[in-house]
What we know:
Radius of gyration: 14 Å
Strand content: under 5%
Helix content: 40-55%
Number of helices: 2
Largest sheet: none
Number of strands: 0
Amino acid sequence: MDVVWQVSQLPKGQEMGALAFMGPMGTHMAGLQTACADQGVIVNLNKD
């Protein structure tokens, strides 16, 4: 959620700056998926 908040705080006209957060967001999502799998919950992040 911190990354989402940071993106929402970008000044008007600087929306492309959100691309800088793509790497950290991917890392956080992979961590979430792993933590869920460790608890027996399978989360599919692919849009299939």
